[in-house]
Each structure stands twice: as C-alpha cells, then as structure tokens.
Amino acid sequence: MKITPEPVGQHVSEWGEGPIWNHDRLLYVDIEAHKIVAFDPTTRAEKIWDVGERVGTVVPRAGSEQCLVWAGDTGFHFLREFTGKSTLIGDPEGNLPDNRFNDGKCDPRGRLWAGTICLTKKPEASLYCLHQDFRIEKKFGPVTNSNGIIWSKDDRTLFYIDTPSKKIRAFDFDPETSGIANERVLWDTQDDPSSPDGMTIDSEDRLWIAFCHGAKVVCFDPVSRKVIEKIDLPCIETTACAFGGADLGDLYITTGLAKGPNEPLAGRVFVCRPGARGVASSAFRG
Asked: What is the DSSP secondary structure assignment for residue 220, as one 8-state letter?
C-alpha cells in the first residue's frame, strides 16, 4: 500500500532540518531563518526560538529542564527555552568564516556529534564530537557537507553521510571511548540525480534516508544493501526524517523551499506511518 505523508504544523521553513523526537514533541531547525521549532502533535502548538544565526542541529540536554543544545554559524551553544537566550560552549572552526555547523545527533552515551558544511563547497569541513566535559574533538574529515549521522542498536556501528560524496558510510564505533575505525561505503548513490541528506534508524537497524533534490525518503537495509521502501514527498527538497510518537511509529519528515518548481507544501513538516518503529533518541549528557 502506498505511504502518503501528510503535512502537520503551521510553520513553513526556508530550510527545515534536524528533526528529533523529544518525549512528546518534535524538535527541528529552520536553518536559513535562524529558528529552532518545537511542535506538539497533540495540541498542534508550535514554539519557536530565533537564535540569531543559521542553526544546523538541535538536541535536548539531559537532566536540565527546558535546556537545548544547538550548533550553527558560531559553534555549539546552550539555549534556555524559558528566556530564549543562548550561551556559547565552543567553536572549533572560528577561523573558517565560510563554514557553519550542519546536522548532528547524540550518541547513546550522550555525546553530541555534529559536522560542518563549507559554504563555498570546498572539502574544508569536518565531523566533531562535543564530549560531556565540553571538550570538542575532531573525528573525521575533510568533508564538504557533513550530514546524516546515526548509531546501530548495539552501539557498535556509526552510519554517516557527507552529502556531496553521495555515499552512506559506516564505521566501527567504540561506545566507551567514542573511537571510530574501519571506514567503509555501504551505498554509493552516484547514479541517483538527488543526494542523501539527513537520516534516522529503525528498531531493525534499517536506515531511513531523506534525499534532497529528490522528493523522497528511502529505507535502506545495511545488511542486504538494498532499498526496501520508498516514500514520495510533494516537495523536491526533502531534507531529513525522524521517528516519533508514543510508539515511535510516526515518521516525521522535514522539507525546504525549492528555488524552481511551484510547491504549495514546500517547507512544511510531514508525517506518515511506514510500518516501522524507531528507537529513542539520546540527549546531551554534559
């Protein structure tokens, strides 16, 4: 049966990205509009914070009510939800004015991994890890546009996308030390005119990958290395996805505005139930 995503919420993003399910709400970012959005699917209420710069990713902070961690033009920051004020944690690329932070997520131990994008499309960006003690460590590079990142159920594999490479990579992951090794390519999408962007994982360790310029989300099995599902979107710029809802069976999908085609639903968040279940997201434990 065809899966048909439906729009939810009212906010129209210039470039929606980075969805993550946090208890009973969806968090995501509107990169170019400098906004972090919290959407409550029960009340349909939206709370929006303008952080004053492009923001690539947001995650909750564990043990600290109404505190988020985000990364953008000027590095990693805390955001107090009640006041809307941000506090700088650190910026490892302050010397690179053409770079900003893009997509990221927390590993199962609560370290925040986020990578940068070089806006002049040079291989001068990197993937970083913000440790619980606020130390920032470079983990992989050079890349051009650091994007989707997620971990396997046993915490032993890190999946990663550098969008211009069109490759979905995997690394052996040490959850104790955060070490990565044994880089390998699981899927080279060079034959696809669109590009892999943000991604999430389900309870069976299958990857759900949004394709920018592709109007689709695909489910890819790293074991068989086959696409086993494709969800079509009415927006060419399909950017990222995350499972949410009470049973983690709702797949939320962010989109962005297209430069060319007339798309009345572009920039909206969509939701569908693809018959899979996600895994609980991790918060930053610093």
From this structure: E
The structure tokens listed for 10 are 């009212």
Alpha-carbon distance 171 to 281, whole Å? 20
Residue 260, pLDDT above cutoff 80 = no
Q: What pLDDT, in 10s, does the model give residues 71-105?
A: 999 999 999 999 999 999 999 999 999 999 999 99
CA distances from 223 to 200, 220, 276 (A): 16, 9, 17
| Contact (CB, 8 A) for 252 and 21 | yes
Catalytic residue among 107, 197, 202, 250: 197
For 7, the 3-state DSSP assignment is strand
Residue 22: exposed, middle, or buried by beta-carbon count in 10 A (0-12, 13-18, 19+)? middle
Per-residue pLDDT reduced to its tens digit, 201-240:
999 999 999 999 999 999 999 999 999 999 999 999 999 9
| pLDDT tens figures, 64-76 | 779 999 999 999 9
* Dihedral sign (CA 55, 137, 26, 213): positive
> Both tokens of residue 53?
């710069």
pLDDT of 259 > 90? The answer is no
Contact 86, 107 (CB under 8 A): no
Q: In whole angstroms, what is the distance from residue 128 CA to residue 137 CA?
A: 5
- Neighbour tally for 58: CB within 10 Å: 28
User: Which CATH class for the 6-272 domain?
Assistant: mainly beta
The token pair that represents 25 in the structure block: 């709400």
Catalytic site residue 250? Answer: no
Alpha carbon distance 46, 25 (integer Å):
10
CA atoms within 13 A on the CB side of 130: 30
- Which token pair is 257? 């505005």
> Which residues lie across from 219 on neighbouring strands?
208, 229
Question: Is residue 13 classed as helix, strand or coil in its secondary structure?
Answer: coil
DSSP-derived 3-state class of residue 164: helix
